[in-house]
Design a protein that fits this description.
By secondary structure, the chain is α/β, with parallel strands linked by helices. The protein is 28% helix and 31% strand. The two termini are 31 Å apart. Bound molecules: inosinic acid and magnesium ion (MG).
Length: 191
């Protein structure tokens, strides 16, 4: 896919690395749940591609369900408020739930969602996040399965968006504004 005129995309994590890591996480989940069925709960919309790939690396009976949540505007980081836009279609009491998210950033969203699901008496809740920006955390939160820890950069692709664009990129990329990319190019040329 082509970037917009004023934007440059730089590959941070290639599709091959993603595929390898997703396979490893799938195997780990398969081992840890020992033949029991699991319910994969994707957080819309960013997690849908990760969920689709991860589910096919899990050799267990797997069902899908989805949630949608939004942080309360810009104040989310300080207020820690999350609004549930779409709840699950299914009951999770007594079930093994794996909450699947694209990226763990401040921790506000996953803190809220994990607590919500744990309150419904599931047998187990585990959290899988493809990416983890640990430096950005405002609320302590650790995922059980993390694909990659990344620095504090804005990324798109493999489900992640910038204003709803770039979700269908195969690689996880950093978006840079043209001016920024030029500066970087100059710096490298001058080394
Ligand atoms: P948290 O509640 O701050 O952990 O927010 C996580 C949500 O912020 C993710 O589900 C994404 O929707 C969004 N997000 C955080 N960082 C990025 C990024 O680098 N690219 C795209 N979306 C991001
Ligand atoms: Mg999201």
């Amino acid at each position: 896919m082509k970037a917009r005129k004023d934007e440059r995309l730089r590959v941070l994590i290639s599709r091959q690395r993603i595929a390898r890591r997703v396979r490893e996480i799938g195997r780990q989940i398969t081992r840890e749940f020992r033949g029991e069925p699991v319910l994969l709960v994707g957080v819309l919309k960013g997690a849908c591609i990760f969920l689709a790939d991860l589910s096919r690396e899990i050799a267990l009976d797997a069902s899908f369900d989805f949630l949608a949540a939004a942080s309360y505007g810009q104040s989310a980081e300080t207020s820690g408020q999350v609004r549930l836009l779409k709840d699950l279609d299914t009951r999770i009491e007594g079930r093994n739930v794996i909450l699947v998210e694209d990226i763990l950033d401040t921790g506000v969203t996953l803190n809220y969602l994990a607590r919500l699901l744990r309150g419904r008496q599931p047998k187990a809740v585990r959290v899988a996040a493809l990416l983890d920006k640990a430096d950005r955390r405002t609320q302590p939160f650790e995922a059980d399965y993390v694909g990659f820890r990344i620095p504090n950069v804005f990324v798109v692709g493999y489900g992640l968006d910038y204003a709803e664009r770039y979700r269908n990129l195969r690689d996880v990329c950093v978006v840079e504004m043209e001016s920024e990319a030029k500066r970087r190019g100059k710096k490298q040329a001058g080394r």
